[in-house]
């Protein structure tokens, strides 16, 4: 088979061969949110969770998760990321929005790394708060920006 595909000539799963692609600056932004009881959000924002600084730990977990994306997602290329940020915005009365920005100069994009950063950060919030709120929901994880590379720019909602 020719072109960029996750299948080899025999139809088996294979990592895409990007060796002929040019290195370009690439960026991706992903977003998601964690919905929780209003009391849980208040405790997080007041620093009153028994396990410590929830958002600080979730930020670190999201950054670390983005760097391990190729270990988590089959056929994903390992990348030397040049920048990863994970930010949180409280959405009173009952949610925290998460946004991850990932940059690389390489032959393949960083969409999966940005999505992984958001997901791991959200899971970390859940893990650190589940003792008081098992009804939390992780919602709306999505790619909102992808730029660079042959396929150009994508902007979502």
Automatic annotation (TrEMBL):
<dbReference type="GO" id="GO:0061799">
    <property type="term" value="F:cyclic pyranopterin monophosphate synthase activity"/>
</dbReference>
<feature type="binding site">
    <location>
        <begin position="112"/>
        <end position="113"/>
    </location>
    <ligand>
        <name>substrate</name>
    </ligand>
</feature>
<dbReference type="Pfam" id="PF01967">
    <property type="entry name" value="MoaC"/>
</dbReference>
<dbReference type="InterPro" id="IPR047594">
    <property type="entry name" value="MoaC_bact/euk"/>
</dbReference>
<keyword id="KW-0501">Molybdenum cofactor biosynthesis</keyword>
<dbReference type="InterPro" id="IPR023045">
    <property type="entry name" value="MoaC"/>
</dbReference>
<comment type="subunit">
    <text>Homohexamer; trimer of dimers.</text>
</comment>
<feature type="binding site">
    <location>
        <begin position="75"/>
        <end position="77"/>
    </location>
    <ligand>
        <name>substrate</name>
    </ligand>
</feature>
<dbReference type="InterPro" id="IPR036522">
    <property type="entry name" value="MoaC_sf"/>
</dbReference>
<keyword id="KW-0456">Lyase</keyword>
<feature type="active site">
    <location>
        <position position="127"/>
    </location>
</feature>
<dbReference type="InterPro" id="IPR050105">
    <property type="entry name" value="MoCo_biosynth_MoaA/MoaC"/>
</dbReference>
<feature type="domain" description="Molybdopterin cofactor biosynthesis C (MoaC)">
    <location>
        <begin position="15"/>
        <end position="149"/>
    </location>
</feature>
<protein>
    <recommendedName>
        <fullName>Cyclic pyranopterin monophosphate synthase</fullName>
        <ecNumber>4.6.1.17</ecNumber>
    </recommendedName>
</protein>
<dbReference type="GO" id="GO:0006777">
    <property type="term" value="P:Mo-molybdopterin cofactor biosynthetic process"/>
</dbReference>
<comment type="similarity">
    <text>Belongs to the MoaC family.</text>
</comment>
<comment type="pathway">
    <text>Cofactor biosynthesis; molybdopterin biosynthesis.</text>
</comment>
<comment type="function">
    <text>Catalyzes the conversion of (8S)-3',8-cyclo-7,8-dihydroguanosine 5'-triphosphate to cyclic pyranopterin monophosphate (cPMP).</text>
</comment>
<dbReference type="InterPro" id="IPR002820">
    <property type="entry name" value="Mopterin_CF_biosynth-C_dom"/>
</dbReference>
């Amino acid at each position: 088979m020719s072109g960029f595909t996750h299948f080899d000539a025999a139809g088996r799963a294979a990592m895409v061969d990007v060796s002929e692609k040019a290195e370009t600056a690439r960026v991706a932004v992903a977003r998601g949110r964690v919905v929780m009881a209003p009391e849980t959000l208040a405790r997080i924002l007041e620093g009153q969770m028994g396990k410590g600084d929830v958002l600080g730990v979730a930020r670190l977990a999201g950054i670390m998760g983005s760097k391990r994306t190729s270990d988590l997602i089959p056929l994903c290329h390992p990348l030397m990321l040049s920048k990863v940020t994970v930010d949180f915005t409280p959405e009173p009365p009952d949610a925290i929005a998460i946004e991850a920005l990932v940059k690389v100069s390489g032959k393949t994009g960083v969409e999966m790394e940005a999505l992984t950063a958001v997901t791991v950060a959200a899971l970390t919030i859940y893990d650190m708060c589940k003792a008081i709120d098992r009804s939390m929901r992780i919602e709306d994880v999505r790619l909102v920006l992808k730029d660079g590379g042959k396929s150009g720019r994508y902007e979502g909602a």
